[in-house]
């Protein structure tokens, strides 16, 4: 009897304590209800996995090797090989993210590793190649221009990392580091293949290097083409444009690559100027012709 009364007493105390915690009139009850409501209405956060996945990391490591190989070839004076290696690094960099998404192996490690590799392949490597080819004869001005490019790439990658998940995926803010790298090495590839020594156009090379570095840290928007749906219906003209682009590329790879990435680099400022002029044009009063 006493044992049953003791058990009933403990259950009564437990119910009373639960009533006090859930009672909205008590302070502890208010905090408990607020916490419960916050948990119910909190948005579901998608956490990326923290493991190391071999397949996408192999593509990223191959991109790192291509950047390292480009630096070594530039030190040996093989600038065409350096430019081709940077182009291969860009292709591998584009593939590693897609492989990770297709195989559902995206991870925080992969994102951080990819940024570090991009800093080497698209930050350090193009600046060192340009310095070896044209800027070394300018002394301090030459390595300062190369450093501006490296700093621009580092800042661009850091800004991209903090904007992941919050920025509009249709656009890049600032010229992407792979595009800036292809602009620089494409410039080198075209002129070196034409027999033009870098020392003879060192000032033009200086301007291209600084321009690429500044565009990376600018607030100019560039199309990312991530919203391009290749599985949907596309115009018939686009189907013809793809093989035509391949034919042009294999006819003269250096010139085609440089012109493509030069056009892309200039498309951002051109679109920004048009956007700036359009409101001013709309605000002008309409002129009515005199009868």
Automatic annotation (TrEMBL):
Its EC number is 2.7.8.8. Residues 10-20 have a biased composition (Basic residues). Keywords: Lipid biosynthesis, Lipid metabolism, Membrane, Phospholipid biosynthesis, Phospholipid metabolism, Transferase, Transmembrane, Transmembrane helix. Residues 1-22 are annotated as: Disordered. Its main location: membrane. GO terms for cellular component: endomembrane system; membrane. NCBIfam families: pssA. This is CDP-diacylglycerol--serine O-phosphatidyltransferase. It comes from Candidatus Muproteobacteria bacterium RBG_16_65_31.
């Amino acid at each position: 009897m006493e044992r049953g009364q003791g058990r009933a007493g403990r259950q009564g105390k437990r119910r009373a304590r639960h009533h006090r915690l859930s009672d909205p009139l008590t302070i502890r009850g208010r905090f408990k209800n607020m916490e419960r409501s916050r948990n119910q209405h909190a948005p579901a956060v998608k956490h990326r996995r923290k493991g190391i996945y071999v397949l996408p990391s192999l593509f990223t490591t191959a991109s790192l090797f291509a950047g390292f190989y480009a630096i070594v070839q530039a030190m040996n004076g093989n600038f065409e090989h350096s430019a081709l290696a940077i182009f291969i690094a860009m292709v591998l960099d584009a593939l590693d993210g897609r492989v990770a998404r297709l195989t559902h192996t995206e991870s925080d490690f992969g994102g951080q590793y990819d940024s570090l590799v991009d800093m080497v392949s698209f930050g350090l490597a193009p600046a060192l190649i340009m310095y070896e080819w044209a800027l070394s004869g300018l002394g301090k001005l030459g390595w300062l221009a190369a450093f501006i490019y490296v700093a621009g790439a580092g800042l661009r990658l850091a800004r991209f990392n903090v904007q992941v998940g919050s920025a509009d995926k249709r656009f890049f803010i600032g010229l992407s580091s792979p595009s800036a790298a292809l602009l620089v090495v494409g410039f080198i590839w075209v002129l070196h293949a034409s027999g033009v020594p870098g020392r003879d156009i060192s000032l033009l090379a200086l301007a291209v290097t600084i321009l690429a570095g500044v565009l990376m840290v600018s607030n100019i928007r560039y199309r990312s083409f991530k919203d391009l749906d290749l599985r949907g219906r596309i115009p018939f003209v686009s189907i013809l444009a793809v093989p035509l682009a391949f034919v042009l590329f294999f006819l003269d790879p250096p010139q085609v690559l440089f012109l493509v990435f030069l056009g892309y680099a200039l498309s951002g400022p051109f679109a920004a100027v048009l956007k700036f002029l359009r409101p001013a044009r709309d605000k002008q009063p309409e002129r009515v012709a005199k009868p």
